[in-house]
Amino acid sequence: MRHSWSMNIASLDLAPYWMPFTHNRYFKQRPKLIASAEGAYFTLTDGRRVFDCLSGLWCTPLGHSHARIVGAIQRQVSQLDYSPAFQMSHAGAFELAARIARLAPEGMNRVFFTNSGSESVDTALKIAIAYHRIRGETNRTRLIGREMGYHGVGIGGISVGGLPNNRAMFTSMLVPGIDHIPHTYNASKMRFSRGQPTWGAHLADELQKLVEKHGPDTIAAVIVEPMQGSAGVIVPPRGYLERLRSICTQHGILLIFDEVITGFGRVGANFGSQRLGVTPDLITFAKAITNGVVPFGGVIARQAIHDAFMTGPPHAIELFHGYTYSGHPMACAAGIATLDAMEETGAIARSAALEPVLEEAMHSLRGEPHVADIRNFGLAAAVDLTPREGQPGLRALEAFERGLDAGLLLRFTGDTLAVGPPFIASPDEIREMARLIRGVLHDIK
Length: 445
Ligand code: PLP
Prior knowledge:
single chain, alpha/beta, seven-stranded mixed β-sheet
């Protein structure tokens, strides 16, 4: 029998829960609660069944209630529910780290565990700063992010992040010594592009200008999402990441790819790095590694970065960093089961095979009401809607709400709708999603 919380919204006290990244007052006037999920669909408490257009929040590519993952967690919780993360561990943590190392780009084979994307980002930034310091390059303290980048909500993450709203209230807390290179989106040059835009590689040269401004030996690391997800699927121009890589290599700067969205198949390869043919020095991951079932994340480092820490007396702790729940047994069980399921079902190849289906389906919306741009890469796409005069964000909000009636759980930020369907979706389900979005676009004002 499936457990269920109250299905009766009227009996719930909605006030105490302060919801994250949510218009709390608006929501509580019109609450929408999810009761259950199976495969690529959610069922709401009012009985509506909706297609999971964004795989949760980019985190459930294998669909919900996956029998293998559910079984693995059930077995794990009855055998070892928790194991201290410091000075002790359990086999699952080592097994999962080894599995991830095998999937990672060549030479990136040391894995640190966290519980979220935000923690992964702050961990990667700390590793980068500490790496230079232990090698005697104590001046290398500057960090460089990118406009419109999203790197979670930790202090490090919002400091290198480039979404203005996420920083505005916290300017006094931001880490000093951080610059941002420009984002790569330019509507007039790349509107309706399919896959990687051909314009924009030269924007990487802004990094070179910062190197010249501050001095090459002051910059510790550059962090970018290979494909900017939260800003609305902003796809790297051809040649752009290659140029960032070569400037970093030339000046001893570490390149961090934040692969919290792009890791584990979203762009048709294990990591965005492999799809795009550019290998960074550190990779952050989270989300899909446990199919969203248990919070989890981590950082993959080049071996040389890890080894640089392994120099003091062997009984001394090398990195004063970690979390009570790093390598949690439940997360490791979920992670191993997710990788097993991905391998056995060829899920990442399936993601790659669905990419042209999603591209065709989404670009067929060109010319529909309110559509200002459509972009896609991997199994991800975004549709920009023209904002309503004087009411930014309202049109996409209306589309989101109409979507629920039409059978879609859409994701929107600002006036952008983003989709990233589960890899288990069929081509017909993806086409149907686009057909339903078309209907929504005709329905909204
Ligand atoms: N980095 C990227 C690229 C993300 O997309 C996200 C979340 O969407 C994060 C970091 C933060 O992850 P979390 O919400 O698990 O802290």
